[in-house]
Amino acid sequence: MGMVFGKISVETPKYEVVQSSPDYEIRKYSPSVAAEVTYDPSQFKGDKDGGFMVLANYIGALGNPQNAKPEKIAMTAPVITKSPGDESEKIAMTAPVVTKGDKSMVTMQFLLPAKYKKAEEAPKPVDERVVIREEGERKYGVVTFGGVATEEVVADKVEKLKKSLERDGHKVIGDFLLARYNPPWTLPPFRTNEVMIPVE
């Protein structure tokens, strides 16, 4: 029931709030290990979240884990997505999946539980499309919002966050990520989403 009403009961990434303003937070995230998949959304009928099932199968979210051990890996939140293309292109995201890429390819990412400190500690994927990589310490300007993270809403949040960061003297050093903390069946008023922009 909690998932329908937005209760986040899974592990989330560790971070320290470096600065807080009425418009955003600057957060420093601890190093982590991620499972990611890069794909062409057209293979999934244009669905930018098409890689979700590939990653869910790797951790065993919906059955037997598709990794060499096989070891069931706990789901975490958020799913982070970085969309391909230029900065004007909109992005949608889930908990934690990260997506990034060129004009046609998308990368989606699940952050693995904190017990995995190095990439080699995570179970080896059976599906060669799944890549395990380490994320170093990183800093983001973050804005949190509820509801459905449509392309229009996300584009508006990104634009406002960028302007606020630049106004306050923060240097943007990359494309934004969309973090979605709840499954798709969570009622929209109870959803938690974040737009994250990397800063120096």
UniProtKB/TrEMBL annotation:
<protein>
    <recommendedName>
        <fullName>SOUL heme-binding protein</fullName>
    </recommendedName>
</protein>
<dbReference type="Pfam" id="PF04832">
    <property type="entry name" value="SOUL"/>
</dbReference>
<dbReference type="InterPro" id="IPR011256">
    <property type="entry name" value="Reg_factor_effector_dom_sf"/>
</dbReference>
<dbReference type="InterPro" id="IPR006917">
    <property type="entry name" value="SOUL_heme-bd"/>
</dbReference>
<comment type="similarity">
    <text>Belongs to the HEBP family.</text>
</comment>
